[in-house]
Amino acid sequence: MQITLKTVETEEEIALTARLAKEIWHEHYDALIGVAQVDYMLSHFQSGEAIAAQIETGTVYVLAYWAGEPAGYCAYRPEEEKMFLSKIYVRNELRGRGIGKAFFDHVEENARGKRSVYLTVNKHNDHSIAVYERVGFAVADQVCTDIGEGFYMDDYIMEKALA
User: Fold this and answer.
1) Among positive and negative, which fits the CA dihedral 7, 8, 13, 18?
2) Per-residue pLDDT at 37 exceeds 90
3) Average pLDDT for residues 133-152, to the nearest whole number?
4) Which positions fall inside the N-acetyltransferase domain (predicted)?
5) DSSP-assigned letters across all residues of the chain
6) Cross-strand pairs, 139
7) Alpha-carbon radius of gyration of the chain
8) Rounded to an integer, what distance in angstroms lies between the CA atom of residue 135 and that of residue 157?
């Protein structure tokens, strides 16, 4: 396996994560929610400053490398009884190589003792929903969140029980 996972700790790793976010989000979300909302969300939630602030408040960011090259990232935040999988993104050309599975395995390993892992996903993101279902997540609820400037996140909450 050519996958290496590394917890984001340095300013350089934070900057790399923000660059990956910009690349991957535009690849994946422009057609789904529009360029304007993608740009808004990147600037508010996935800039270097936003990522650093999230890390300061307990969110763990993890970079994946494929054969030494940056391949994607995930982020998760432990809660009392659950683990919130906030983000899981892989560069388009590297999908299907087990990187997503490595992220899921890593998050579940870090969720030991928790009741479940949960995430949110856009209701129209059919591909990602199918991936989450394949690894054991099921729709548990739905939520529509006003994120400002007329933009909304219309999501399913998907959850996977842990043994």
Assistant:
1) positive
2) yes
3) 98
4) 16-163
5) --EEEEE--SHHHHHHHHHHHHHHHHHHHHHHH-HHHHHHHHHHHSSHHHHHHHHHTTPEEEEEEETTEEEEEEEEEE-SSEEEEEEEEE-GGGTTSSHHHHHHHHHHHHTTT-SEEEEEEETT-HHHHHHHHHTT-EEEEEEEEEEETTEEEEEEEEEEE--
6) 158
7) 15
8) 15
Closest CA to 60 of 33, 87, 36: 87
- Are 45 and 100 contacting, i.e. CB atoms less than 8 angstroms apart? no
Q: Taking 80 as the threshold, does the pLDDT of residue 73 lie above it?
A: yes
Query: Tokens 């949960």 — which residue?
Result: 118
pLDDT at position 1 over 90: no
Between 3.30.565.10, 3.30.420.10, 3.40.630.30, 3.10.290.10, what CATH number should domain 3-115 receive?
A: 3.40.630.30
